[in-house]
Write a structure and sequence with these properties.
This protein is α+β, with helices and mostly antiparallel strands. The chain is built from nine helices and six strands; from the N terminus they run αβαβββαααααββαα. A four-stranded mixed β-sheet has the order 2-1-5-6. Strands 3-4 form a two-stranded antiparallel sheet. α2 packs antiparallel against α4, α3 packs antiparallel against α4 and α3 packs across α6. β3 and β4 form a beta hairpin. Belongs to the GILT family.
Length: 205
């Protein structure tokens, strides 16, 4: 009988210990979601004035910081039986948006800094310049093929619209909450996050 009680106690004790250990070891991740149009002048200005200097200074993205850019369409329509994206600033914007979407899918996810630099390079460009932004690797052909087919259309259409009402772009959410300050001083906002505050560039502030 004692052995049974001891076994039950041991199981309960160990399960509690394991649960506590999992809670202690659960490391929070900060999420940054940025939404914009590739041919929107305000979005492009933010990319050039805020994101590009940030990427140049940081070199690598902290492991607990997840920065995601969402190229945005404003809807879709049916053409010859196929659903295609509709973009605020016309067909070229849709093509550039699809290049960004396909880059997100086919570039190495373990190297987020190069992906973000590629998206920044495409932003606001003409089509020829944007294609030149793509990495010279196997992924380049995959990205181009993706952007020219239904795959790219569906990736663009599936990007989440960040708000139900009209929005001012770029629309930036930090851990699910819209941050207007991040449109003005992106580095400062990022450096206030637990995931990035100890990064070398943040220690200079």
């Amino acid at each position: 009988m004692f052995s049974i009680y001891f076994l039950i106690f041991s199981i309960l004790f160990l399960s509690g210990t394991i649960d506590s250990t999992l809670k202690v070891n659960k490391i929070p991740v900060d999420t940054v979601d940025i939404t914009g149009f590739t041919k929107c002048s305000l979005t492009t200005k933010w990319f050039k004035k805020q994101l590009a200097p940030f990427l140049e200074e940081f070199k690598t993205i902290p492991s607990r910081l997840n920065i995601t850019y969402h190229p945005l369409s404003i809807g879709s329509k049916i053409v010859n039986g196929s659903k295609i994206a509709v973009c605020e600033n016309g067909e070229l914007e849709c093509k550039l948006n699809k290049l960004q979407c396909c880059s997100k899918k086919y570039m190495n996810s373990s190297d987020p800094i190069n992906l973000l630099k590629t998206l920044e390079c495409i932003q606001g460009s003409n089509l020829e310049t944007a294609i030149a932004c793509l990495p010279e690797a196997n992924s380049k052909n995959l990205i181009e093929k993706c952007s020219d087919t239904d795959e790219g259309e569906q990736l663009l259409i599936s990007e989440p619209f960040p708000h139900n009402a009209s929005i001012v772009l770029p629309w930036i959410k930090i851990n699910g909450v819209r941050s207007f300050e991040a449109t003005k001083n992106f580095k400062k906002v990022i450096c206030e996050l637990n995931s990035a505050k100890d990064a070398k560039p943040c220690l200079k502030i």
